[in-house]
Amino acid sequence: MTGLTPGPQVLDTAACLRLLATVPVGRVAFTDRALPAIQPVNFVMDGADVVLRTGRGSTLEIAMRRAVVAFEAGAFDPVTHAGWTVTVLGESRAVTDPAEHARLAALPLRVWAGGERDHFVRITGRRISGRLLQEAAA
Q: Tell me: the pLDDT tens digits for 86-120?
């Protein structure tokens, strides 16, 4: 990341999607009983959509039924202070179509949390934005 201007740089949508595909964990922000909530989740990209797995009837699954949500992922180096962050604002929906469910089950989405996670949620981004922070010059 050297040779570029230090400080935050705005990323285009294509760069945001490429970066999202490089990390397995993000955070989803949603409303839980009229209060804001943020939860870490494993995810995978399916085109421009964020896909995550959750347990049927979980707080996350219930709160994300046809809801407007925010999703964020990023990576940072604590030594160089370089990194990136991408935010996806959009609508979530439960995946109910059996063919779509089967296709998503074949994606490389590994859930780190224990328990059964047989329910897919898709977040379709309406606004995708990102920032890149370059290593500061010495």
A: 999 999 998 989 999 999 989 888 887 766 678 88
C-alpha 42/C-alpha 20 separation (Å) is 12
100 closest CA partner among 47, 138, 35: 47
**How far apart, in whole angstroms, are the C-alpha atoms of residue 132 and residue 134?**
6
Tokens describing residue 76: 């940072």
Dihedral (Cα; 81, 39, 91, 133), 10-degree rounding: 0
pLDDT value for 138? 54
Q: Using only C-alpha atoms, what is the Rg of the chain?
A: 16
Q: How far, in Å, CA of 136 to CA of 124, rounded?
A: 34
Distance CA 129, CA 127 (A): 7
Say if residue 1's pLDDT is above 50. Answer: no
Structural domains for the chain: 24-134 (2.30.110.10)
